[in-house]
Amino acid sequence: MEKYYFTYEDIHRTARDIAERVVSSGFEPDVIVAIGSGGFIPARILRTFLGKPILAVGIAYYDADDKPSELPRKVQWVEEAEKKLAGKRILLVDEVDDSRTTLEYCVRELLRHRPAEIAVAVLHDKRKEKRGAIPPEVKRYIAGRTIEDRWVCYPWDALDIDGHVAAAAASSDAGGGEGR
After folding, report:
1. What is the pLDDT along the chain (180 residues), one digit of tens a residue?
2. Helices (runs of H) and strands (runs of E) counted in the chain
3. Degrees (nearest 5) of the Cα angle 83, 89, 94?
């Protein structure tokens, strides 16, 4: 199976581009909500550019063998969610929009807390048919890059970062792929 290998530099540049698109869209988030674990690092980089606090949620969709489960489930949620989310403009962040199931689940859970608005940002949107759907209440969806449906190797998952960087440099589309 072909893979994408993204470096930290790729991720940083993509997050910067997302932040610029968030600002130019006129959306001013009050808070960034990171979907763990993949959304933690992109959310932290976005915080550098947007200057907003981060809240973290844990949603489990894949098992220990990277196989999707039937449905996503909450494993961690925002403490005092009603107080921290009601009436707020939320930027929901994840690393990849693969099946869209996790994003749909998380948006629906956030909507239960009556935010003023939710925007979704992902580093990478896989070009494929999605099992889930972004609820219509979400008016802004920003994907840093649209990529083909290949396995994505992020640097924060690498046991050998030097090997990961070498694989990224050696890939036929160095720097992670399309849309750069």
Report:
1. 799 999 999 999 999 999 999 999 999 999 999 998 899 999 999 999 999 999 998 777 666 666 666 666 666 656 666 678 999 999 999 999 999 999 999 999 999 999 999 999 999 999 999 999 999 999 999 999 999 999 999 999 999 999 999 999 998 554 444 432
2. 5, 8
3. 100
Contact 104, 133 (CB under 8 A): yes
Task: Report residue 57 CA to chain centroid gap.
Answer: 12
Beta bridge partners of 126: 147
Question: Which positions are catalytic?
Answer: 98
Residues 6+ apart with CB under 8 A from 31: 52, 53, 54, 55, 84, 85, 88, 89, 90, 91
In the chain, where are the structural domains located?
3-170
- CATH number of the domain at 3-170, please? 3.40.50.2020
Tokens encoding 3: 């893979």
Task: Tell me whether strands 68-76 and 3-5 are parallel, antiparallel or unpaired.
Answer: unpaired
For residue 153, what is the enclosing H or E element?
strand 151-153
